[in-house]
Design brief:
14% strand; Rossmann fold; 347 residues; 11 helices; globular; 36% helix; six-stranded parallel beta sheet
Length: 347
């Protein structure tokens, strides 16, 4: 029997605040025969024995709390890149975003571009992710969250309520949602915004805007699973006014909880709408407006308590084997079909 493929993930062992996608992926990989999953630490990454490095958001590895920790992480990341180059360790990257994040320092940008150059194989979450020519790719759809939230029964939707739940960042356009909602006339409407803002400035902006409209309530803190289910479940329509949206765990969270979503009109979201069935995915073009909110709310009025979007293509049962196939392809590409001993260094 062949040895299992030893995979080092770019994330540490999951904690209560870890992204549910990462937790469910880790569980799927741990259940997969022929695959041995290891969690990230720089000690393991630099000195451990593994066959493949699997990255999700590599920018996390070059950032830290404060300048000293950031500089230390960048130095360790540079050493890690050196190991990958010397040992020809295959690097597999799941492509969550189309471009590097904004606000990077010159050093961070150089390190991440070097990491991209060393990437052997890419995993995309939808077929709309375009990659440079000549690169190998596997498509493994983002799984649903129905099992994840099954232990938390949600409330019935409140008529006329819009909701937003999840981390609040500038690019997600939450302030635009608040402003568009404030332009709606009528006391029958309500809006709840839940999630932790990325900065005190953003939290202050949202708090000030919400205070001017009694129909708006906010929970500007990290949401537990039960709290997230309460925010999403109480909403008749979940609104995700992202300025840039390519792969959205937020949209799948809402759909997994049987709530329709209003999202930007782009190729990815149009395909999602076709996949899950009407009227679960509503689209808006350009800047979100009160008219978009009103139109989308009217479009989902016919959904009943027993209606569910079609998420059969998002089941987790095959995710582990699909990732294993991608890892094996990367090993074959890097080693010419045989596994090199350079990436199997013992501690």
């Amino acid at each position: 029997m062949p040895e299992p493929v030893r995979v080092l993930a770019s994330f540490p062992r999951p904690r209560p605040t870890t992204n549910p996608y990462i937790v469910m992926l880790a569980q799927a990989l741990e259940r997969t025969p022929g695959l041995e999953l290891h969690y990230f630490s720089y000690r393991t990454a630099l000195l451990g024995r593994y066959d493949v490095f699997h990255a999700h958001w590599p920018e996390i590895l070059v950032d830290g709390h404060g300048p000293v920790k950031t500089a230390a992480r960048q130095a360790l990341f540079a050493l890690l890149l050196g190991r990958f180059a010397i040992t020809r360790t295959p690097v597999v990257r799941t492509v969550h975003n189309l471009a590097l994040p904004e606000g990077l320092s010159p050093v961070q940008r150089i390190l991440l571009l070097a990491f991209d150059h060393l990437t052997t194989h890419r995993i995309r979450l939808n077929t709309s992710t375009e990659l440079p020519p000549g690169q190998t790719v596997s498509t493994i759809p983002h799984g649903h969250y129905r099992d994840w939230f099954a232990a938390h029964p949600g409330p019935a939707p409140v008529p006329g309520r819009f909701g937003y739940a999840g981390l609040i960042r500038r690019y997600k356009g939450t302030e635009t949602l608040v402003q568009a909602f404030r332009d709606l006339d009528g006391e029958a409407w309500s809006l709840v915004v839940g999630g932790r803002p990325s900065s005190p400035e953003l939290a202050g902006t949202l708090t000030e805007a919400a205070a001017q409209d009694p129909r708006i309530s906010t929970r500007l803190a990290f949401l537990t699973d039960a709290e997230l289910v309460d925010v999403v479940g109480s909403s008749q329509l979940v609104v995700l006014p992202y300025r840039h949206m390519h792969n959205s765990g937020g949209a799948l969270t809402a759909l997994s909880l049987n709530r329709p979503v209003l999202v930007p009109d782009n190729t990815v979201n149009r395909r999602l709408a076709d996949e899950v069935g009407a009227p679960w995915v509503q689209l808006f073009d350009g800047e979100l407006t009160a008219a978009d909110l009103q139109r989308a709310s009217s479009a989902v009025q016919g959904l009943g308590a027993g209606d569910r979007p079609d998420l059969t293509g998002r089941d987790w049962s095959g995710a582990g084997q699909a990732h294993l196939a991608a890892f094996r392809e990367a090993i074959g590409l890097r080693s010419g079909g045989t596994r090199r001993t350079g990436s199997r260094r013992r501690r």
